[in-house]
Amino acid sequence: MALIRAFELRAQEMYQRAKIGGYCHLNLGEEATVVGLMSALRAKDYLFANYRVHGYAITRGLDPGEVMAELFGRTDGVSGGWGGSMHLFDEGVRLMGGYGIVGGQLPPATGAALAIDYEQKADDKSDAVMCLLGDGTTAIGAFHESLNIAGLWNLPIVYVIINNGLGMGTTVDASSAEPDLYKRGAAYRIPSTRVDGNDPDTVRKAAEKALKSAREDRRPYLLETTSERLKGHSVVDPAKYRTDEENKELKENDPVPLYRSTLIKSRAMTKKQAQEIDDEAERIVDDAVAFADKSPSPKPEQLFDNDYSTAVAGAPKQMPGDPLITF
Ligand SMILES: Cc1ncc(C[n+]2csc(CCOP(=O)(O)OP(=O)(O)O)c2C)c(N)n1
């Protein structure tokens, strides 16, 4: 949690210093959810995420330097600098991408669960899929289509609604006829529950139960976690829609200092150890920025190295803005 906090605060700073371009969405305020969920996943499980993906990538084991380099758009980034903040991908740790299209991750995640089901018999060795989505995403058609198929075909998948209360600036109450989002599982006979996303231990227990259902019972599961993002939708959103009172509450419920003091109070950790963890996190993030800074930018001639269009014999590769080719 401390590392995600340090990384995200630094990413915000790097964006403001124009080291990062494009979009940049942070996990600030969602650290307990991230750590709880990721600690329940096995190495061979597949993870599909939305664009708010930095903390998941780091917790899943990706090198923070390579994640920062991706944010900087550099060749040593986890996606070779082509994806940026929203599109972290690493097959090795089975992080099957962050998706920028709202709900875009749901169909491929459901397809991955179908592939697993096709290849493996139900036993505790089976892999499972975890698919993350925001509260706003529960109104997207792909959410309902995916849950319907997963429920119908008994696919080994856990859908997790990371309910941070807002889809951009719109509250759940203003956008959802059924604001108890986990209840949407009932329409597809998918078991579901809602837990406090500010407590990593609670999230972990709930995720373990959900994954067990997917893996062993061959029933998909819908888990909802409640937390709040501390900042705006992305780093360029000043979050003017929040009142002073709401900002005060956010600070009081901030999961990082809360968990830190819970561990100290219960004597699981001393103040000194907590400080050492924070210092270590800062050191890792310093190194990550230094690594990203040193990594070269991709060259323009590499632009088409990773496209998946079929080559047309004799047709030159076109750059956006090039004059139309006439034959
Ligand atoms: C199909 C589509 N529609 C709209 C957008 C613009 N958009 C980006 S994020 C977002 C809000 C999503 O909110 P939520 O699912 O709650 O995720 P959160 O940002 O809270 O993690 C919208 C509308 C988009 N990227 N894709």
UniProtKB/TrEMBL annotation:
Cofactor: thiamine diphosphate
EC id: 1.2.4.1
GO molecular function, one term: pyruvate dehydrogenase (acetyl-transferring) activity
Keywords: Oxidoreductase, Pyruvate, Thiamine pyrophosphate
Any single GO BP term: pyruvate decarboxylation to acetyl-CoA
Residue span, Dehydrogenase E1 component domain: 1-301
Broad EC category: oxidoreductase
Protein name: Pyruvate dehydrogenase E1 component alpha subunit
Source organism: Spelaeicoccus albus
Species classification: Bacteria, Bacillati, Actinomycetota, Actinomycetes, Micrococcales
